[in-house]
Amino acid sequence: MPRMERFSYIAPTGRLTNLSVSTLDRLALQRTPSLSASQHQQHPELAKWPYESTEELPPVPRIPDRGSCSTCSYAGHPALRATMQQTAAETPPFCPGTRFYLAFAALAALAMVVAVNGTTVSVAMPVIASAMQGSTTGVMWAGSAFLLASTVFQPVYTAFSEGFGSRQLALVSVGLLAAGTLTAGLARDLTMLVVGRSIQGVGGGGVTALTAILVNDLIPLQQRGQWIGILGAVWAVGSTFGPVLGGALAQPQLWHWMFLATLPLVAASFMSIVVFCQATPLTASLVHGVKQADWVGSFLFVVSITAILVPVTWGGVTYDWRSWRVLTPIGYGCTGFIILFYHERYVAKRPVIRREVFSNRTANIAYITTAVHGMILWSLMYYQPLYTEGVRGFRPVVAGVALLPTTITIAPIAIATGLAIGKVGRWRWSIWSGWAVTVLGTGLLCALDTNTQIVQVVVTDFIVGVGLGSLFPALQFQLQSATDSKHLASAVAMFSFCRGLGQTLGVSISGNVFQNALRSRLAKEPLFADKAQDLARNALAIVQWLDTTPAGAEKTAMQQAYTDSIRVVYIFMAAFAVAATLLSIFIQHYNLDRPLDTEQYVWEVDPDIKQPPKGILKP
């Protein structure tokens, strides 16, 4: 009677499982013919299996997903196939344990810190401009620098995570986030503040990208809905708390603490990742990771996207659009992208931007529409406080509270949408309804005026929050369901990059639109025509002027000009929302019932397995 032997493998469900195979079946497996070269390419995870050897089987072989390849004798072996099918059927559903909850809590806390850092400055910009005697453009960079750095480094982190490990890079990004936060909190001039915010952004970009990857490593797709919704809710809580914190600390002697106050949470999250987020170790060495990393592509990408985005914020405000200071860096950036395309296509072994992630229409629409989503949300975060402070005369802390109808709505709507998608197994309804409500909300924003009733403002902000909140999990499901598992990490990184790009454009381009509209509007106003250019360049200082100027013709004219200029921003956002709605008509349905398939498996403690398995991952 053949005896049974046990070894560990990753089941099709993604669970680390003990597999029993008789000694006779084991010998049969060893006699299986070796794979051809083409079959090795099709199943690289089997390349190291000792097919013709009499050596002991490796302790953790990687079973091909669902065994669909008929040419692979190993995958098609009847004894092992039957055992695999029985094991998959008997494997219990995703059941998170203590380690999972603690690891997820650390990731959620970091997501909230990034959200807080992204939104605190929006309410406090007039105070910071006054305290540091900086221009509107300079203070805008305190917000834009964080978003720009966060955006451009997200694909870089993802590409490097394949060689160095997502958990290790997550720790690096948290360290950078802490260093940037400390630098910004101790800043004594505008230059140091922008530098600190840039370092914050580099760390925050890593947190954003790697959090998404680690969540994919933790949770199967069909069960991912509620957890994505929770992350969206946590982000919304951070976005809600950020403006309130910024408003409460928007004083000349206290504004530094809007950065320093988040440091304890960053430190606690760092330690939680170290202790609780244990991922399967990569088999490749650090030297191998350094050699395989796409350093040239990363450099070209960062330089090229920066060379385009920075002058876009200058055009029409700091410099004329036809100025060489605007056109030259844009030209360099476009040239850099051409070189980057060639390098990624023909040279890079592990490209930063993988063309496979753009091979699906539904996924491509997700990239575009999530950029629009980020653009609308961040434009609202930065310009609704200007409306409430400058036009309605609210104090900064009240202006932060005035954002609550939007920000506090996003959290429960995101959770409810994620749960509903996981329950029904379909997601397109949430895309279409989310964009329809967003179009309605942004359209109503265009109707705001100097004498609009506060109830109308609250209802309008609430409607926008419902639309944007439902799109948070819906857009992620759109991308992940339409993307092949082996490209999911790169696709998620591109998705995060597009959202960050939209946020950056939402602040930068909207600022450009607002200041140009204000200059044009003031040029037509007899009271301000002779100084329209200077006033537009220091638009944030107008908020302080309106706060101290008594009622009269000048104040009324300025409030109307301010309102009209903000309305132009909202018209742009409404137009983008309509375009995203029309694009979403063409998305296709994809099934969510898919097993967990990841190369950097984040393991849960199993009583039968005392240590994390070694050698699961290929180099």
Automatic annotation (TrEMBL):
Q: Does the keyword Transmembrane apply?
A: yes
Q: Where is this region: Disordered?
A: 32-63
Q: Which GO terms describe its cellular component?
A: plasma membrane
Q: Could you cite one Gene Ontology molecular function of this protein?
A: transmembrane transporter activity
Membrane topology value: Multi-pass membrane protein
Q: Where are the transmembrane segments?
A: 100-118, 138-157, 169-187, 199-215, 227-249, 255-277, 298-317, 323-343, 364-385, 397-422, 429-448, 454-475, 568-587
Swiss-Prot/TrEMBL keywords? Membrane, Transmembrane, Transmembrane helix
Subcellular localization? Membrane
Q: Does the keyword Transport apply?
A: no
Q: Cite a single Pfam family from the UniProt record.
A: MFS_1
Tell me what this protein is called: Major facilitator superfamily (MFS) profile domain-containing protein
